[in-house]
Structure formats: C-alpha cells, structure tokens
Design a protein that fits this description.
Oligomer: single chain
Strand order of the largest sheet: 2-5-9-13-16-19
Order of helices and strands: EEEEEEEEEEEEEEEEEEHEHHH
Helix content: 10-25%
Strand content: 15-25%
Distance between the termini: 38 Å
Length: 275
C-alpha cells in the first residue's frame, strides 16, 4: 500500500520486482488486495510485478487497486497540522498520474471462482494514468479492469494512456466495466481510447508455480498449500551466517516465479561480507 488514504502527506513511490502470491483476511475483515495505490500519492510507479494465485482472501479482491476519493475525518482538518502539504481548507482528495507498466496479474480471483477485479481504477483520478504493457490473465468471470468514478465524473482524456496490454478471461464476454456498465473488449477500448492492446490468452512456460511447488522442488515434501508455505518459512528462518542457503532467500523464490512467467532474472546486488 503506497500513498495511503489515512495519510495527510503526499508521497511518491516505486513498487518494482515484487512477487505477490495470495492475500488473506485481516481477522474477521475479508481482504484480497495485492497492491494498493492510495489517494495521497503523486507520480507513483508500479512496474514489473507479478500478482498471482489469490486463494485465501474472501472479499475485496483486487490485484492492483487505486484508491477511491474518500477523505478521512482527520484529513478535513489536516491544514491545521504543521506537516501537511496543503494550505487550503482540506487536503487534496486525489491521486495523480500513477504509472502501471509491465505487470502480470494471473488467477487473482475468489479462489478460482468469479468475484473481484484484477485492476480497479478508483475515483479521484486526476492528471491521468499510464497503464501499459501489462498482462491480465484470468480463468474465471472476474472483471479484468474497472473504472469507478466515485464522486468525480471525469472521463478518460488525453492524459490517459492505456496501450499495449493483453487481457483474457474465460466465463464472460463483458469482463470490462465502466462504473456499472459491463463492456466487451471493443466497447472498453472505445471508452478509454486503448491502443494496440489485445484480448487473447498468453502462453507462459509454467504459470502455476507457487511456494508449494518450490518447496516440493527443494525436497521439503509439502502436503498442501499452507504446509508448503510453512516449510519454506521454516527454512528461511534458519538462516544465519553459520547456516546460509540462498535457495531460501526471497530473491530465489522471486526468480523461480518470474521464470515461470518468462520474466528475466533479477539481482538485488547484495554481497556476503563475512568469511
């Protein structure tokens, strides 16, 4: 979550090279978020992430969610605080020009069933959005992408750049949505001015990779999803300079998942300093 709506300070963030597998509820509050861009951010970049295999979250299922235009109670008075960037009667109620590029969203749904939205463009959008070179792949009747205007009525204009994306969902001929209007790909493209995008399935080398399959590959013999996660974490927590195994670093898991989606290997550039 970047630029959270409960903050009174505008922020700029870069979210890159993450692998997000599954979500979960917060105690009794159903949740299914991957990445959230709040309405207190300016020029945030969300680039080259993989968000896949939502299993555990029961509701509010969004792989990439841009915040609504809601204002928290304390934000209405935030100009009275010493650290607020706004000198007016209230804090700004918008997020500005996020760039969402080169991401893959795969099977981010209600545990294999309909429910949720892969991409949610919330109300409060000002100064445009860049949404390019993303792959959204769902095997259920989940909405691939939705605009939710909220209290604003601004429609896509020349500041909106949606292009070169690949969309695919089974189970629905209208997997796009503009507020409450359900749209076909052609209708969606006309509404937002989308260019050079396609509505077709993408072939990946092995998109079904998970922590469970990695644990099995490493001989940890998981019996189910949660057990595979736990066994991987058990090995990761044993790390020390006397017991070092890079196979259980986050980077190893990230590159394992990325390879399944035909993404290049990344390197954090850290080095081991002890002998």
């Amino acid at each position: 979550s970047v630029g959270h709506s409960q903050s009174c300070i505008e922020s700029t963030s870069t979210v890159r090279y993450n692998v997000i597998l599954d979500a979960r509820d917060i105690e009794t509050s159903p949740r299914g978020f991957g990445i959230t861009i709040g309405n207190r951010q300016v020029d945030t970049i969300v680039d080259d992430n993989i968000i896949a295999h939502q299993v555990s979250g029961k509701r509010n299922i969004y792989a990439i969610f841009t915040e609504s235009d809601a204002v928290m109670d304390h934000q209405e008075l935030c100009d009275q605080t010493s650290d607020c960037v706004d000198d007016g009667d209230s804090c700004p109620q918008y997020y500005s020009n996020p760039t969402i590029t080169n991401n893959i969203v795969y099977e981010w749904n209600k545990n294999g069933a309909a429910g949720g939205e892969a991409i949610h463009i919330g109300g409060g959008l000002k100064n445009g959005i860049t949404f390019q070179n993303n792959i959204i792949e769902q095997s259920s009747a989940v909405k691939l992408i939705r605009i939710n205007h909220g209290t604003y009525t601004d429609d896509p204009d020349e500041n909106w750049d949606l292009s070169d994306n690949s969309y695919y969902a089974t189970g629905s001929t209208t997997p796009f949505r503009n507020d409450s209007a359900e749209l076909t790909f052609a209708q969606w493209s006309a509404v937002v001015g989308e260019n050079n995008s396609v509505n077709t399935s993408t072939s990946f080398t092995d998109p079904e990779r998970t922590i469970e399959t990695y644990a099995r590959l490493k001989g940890l013999n998981p019996s189910n999803y949660s057990d595979g996660l736990q066994k991987f974490l058990d090995m990761a927590r044993q790390q020390s300079r006397f017991n070092w195994n890079e196979e259980y670093m986050a980077l190893a898991m990230i590159n394992y998942i990325r390879a399944g989606f035909d993404k290049e290997t990344i390197d954090y550039g850290y080095s081991t300093i002890w002998q």
